[in-house]
Amino acid sequence: MNRVTRYLVAQDGLSDVVGRVVSWLTLALIGVLLFEIVARYFLNSPTIWAHELSTMLYGAFCILAGSYTLRHHGHVRSEVVYGLMPPRLRAFCDLVVYALTLAVLAIFLRFALSFAYESWSTGEYSNMSMWQPPLYPIKATIPLAVALLMLQALAELVRAVLRLFGISYHDPRDEPSY
Hints:
Elements: H1 3-23, H2 25-42, H3 50-64, H4 66-71, H5 79-84, H6 87-122, H7 136-164
Helix pairs in contact: 1-7, 2-3, 3-7, 6-7
């Protein structure tokens, strides 16, 4: 197994692990919402924390699932035009898209890091409800998610460069997953 294949296997594996771990947040989200439904409609005792916690869990789920979604080509793109292109032109388009994606994500990471740092350093709490949960843990997921998305975008950029120059490589996505 050459270095490129090892890198792609490692990066795809990281994105898969993160995606599988993050998917468990849906069970926590369902549990919180189910508790709120029972408390509100059956016990006539609504909670002050369920809505805000479910919003935080859903936000974390959505942003942390980005690298998994990119790894499995789950993001939206126009397949009508893309599918009509020859493979090398598709590779060139992918190269441009992933290079721009990395540039934008690098800028976004810079802002996300200072956003999370400021939240941690001030011990930021929510003022949306009387519950007032700490916000710094959820804000720390933003730069983490951006970094994970950047790593997967880099792997996609490597694939695009290899396809563009006709360099043969073993893509771990071609293997069946169990």
